[in-house]
Design brief:
Oligomer: single chain
Shape: globular
Strand content: 15-25%
Structural class: alpha/beta
Strand order of the largest sheet: 8-5-9-10-4-11-12-13-14
Order of helices and strands: HHEEHEEHEHEHHEHEHEHEHEEEEH
Number of strands: 14
Length: 422
């Protein structure tokens, strides 16, 4: 770039001096004062409701609906990218994040595209969480009144143990200084009037008959019909970047549920060595190429725990820009483990996008956990109790001492020669 700039400067300087101006001092002065360098005007960003430019690379971002997830992804989802969510075993929390993503689109007046093979897209839209107000979302606990008989120094000394007073305080919540997105109440569903105000496109696989009945054609026809439907909507509704701006621009939010499952006609999750292992990867190639030239963002969920070929799962991950995995504690030993009593599962960040930069913005922490509160789904840093092992050891010693005292009492009643030493 520097060499091209220097060459352009020399060419412009040579062309700036006319031939008949040789020997003319006024012409020489004007040539000396002229320059080929011009001040570069700042490019005007597209102004779309529910978007903001990234502070790292200037990419246009949208919110996922989960503020803590936006913080992990560098501020939000970049327009034209794909977010891969590896489903938990019961598809509870991955489905919830997908509903958060769609609910944020409804509130921001973005258009939606929902595709599924098991559940009807209308059923998914009816389960969207309801938006809540700021004063309800950010709850501040009331300060307990201090008794007049208790001195202030005594209360301060009881806040934390003496050995932890000099340790730095760790903030478990993930949040940025500037708010982006909205808050939602998962215990309530969205008002039908708000939901129906958003324009939504649906793709339900059972409603799209497959032309051929062979297994080979079924597997590719399902993804091909989905990609063709997406392409038609992007071109018809004006989401293509190359389309003339006849009307105001908007964002298309694409939600694809449980790709790679047997319901889509795919055998990735049915066999250790699938016959057509490149069906999903071929679809992801076409999807990413389609999104790169449009004002669209896609969130897809994949049942990765059912895919036995880990190399193939790695290829699927690399074909997406963002990749996270949810590991739920439900049905596992960690569900009853006191170490994880405050959480419902772990979250792993496998991949972050590399857009307009040499190095991506990686999260500064890897131990992440999620929990579902009464109204909200949040992602936090995983913190284990600092004195849990010591507490357990104290309890174990107390139980052992109590059992020894009982045994000693019983032994003294039967024989005076029996005793226990500790």
């Amino acid at each position: 770039m520097l060499q091209n700039t220097i060459k352009r400067y020399h060419v412009t300087s040579n062309m700036a001096a006319p031939v008949n101006s040789v020997g003319n001092p006024s012409a020489d002065r004007s040539t000396f004062n002229s320059t080929s360098f011009q001040k570069k005007a700042r490019s005007k960003l597209i102004s779309i409701p529910g978007t903001r430019p990234s502070v790292q690379n200037g990419q246009l971002l949208i919110s996922t609906g989960v503020t803590s997830l936006d913080y992990l992804l560098g501020g939000g989802l970049a327009v034209g990218t794909v977010l891969l969510i590896e489903e938990d075993r019961y598809d509870s929390y991955s489905r919830m994040i997908l509903k958060y993503f769609l609910a944020e689109g409804v509130v921001c007046r973005h258009e939606l595209f929902v595709a599924a093979a098991q559940d009807n897209p209308d059923d998914i839209l009816q389960e969207l969480p309801a938006p809540i107000l700021d004063d309800v979302a950010i709850h501040k606990p009331l300060e307990q009144p201090r008794l007049p008989c208790e001195p202030q120094n005594r209360l301060d000394s009881m806040k934390i143990a003496w050995r932890y007073q000099n340790l730095p305080k760790v903030q478990s919540a993930l949040a940025s200084s500037s708010r982006f997105g909205h808050y939602y109440d998962v215990s309530k569903t969205m008002d039908p009037e708000i939901r129906q105000a958003a324009k939504c496109h649906r793709f339900y696989l059972p409603e799209h008959p497959i032309l051929s009945s062979t297994a080979h054609s079924t597997m590719f026809e399902s993804y091909s019909a989905l990609l063709k439907s997406l392409q038609e909507i992007i071109q018809r509704e004006g989401f293509d970047v190359a389309a003339p701006m006849s009307k105001s621009r908007n964002i298309l939010r694409i939600g694809l549920h449980s790709l790679g499952s047997a319901l889509w006609g795919d055998d990735l999750s049915c066999h250790d060595n699938p016959t057509h292992s490149h069906a999903l990867t071929t679809f992801l190639y076409g999807l990413r190429a389609l999104l790169r030239s449009s004002l669209s963002v896609a969130v897809i969920t994949v049942p990765s725990h059912l895919i036995q070929d880990r190399a193939l799962m790695g290829s699927i991950t690399r074909l997406c820009d963002n990749a996270i995995a949810l590991e739920s504690f439900k049905g596992s030993e960690r569900e009853t483990n006191p170490l994880y009593k405050d959480y419902h599962g772990l979250l792993h960040v496998h991949q972050v996008p590399h857009l307009n930069c040499l190095a991506s913005q990686l999260p500064d922490h890897k131990d992440l956990a999620f929990k579902l509160k009464r109204k909200q789904f949040t992602i936090e840093r995983l913190h284990l109790p600092p004195d849990l092992s010591e507490t357990v050891s104290r309890v174990s010693r107390g139980d052992l001492a109590g059992a020894a005292m009982v045994a000693s009492a019983c032994g003294s009643g039967t024989s005076g020669n029996k005793h226990l030493d500790f």
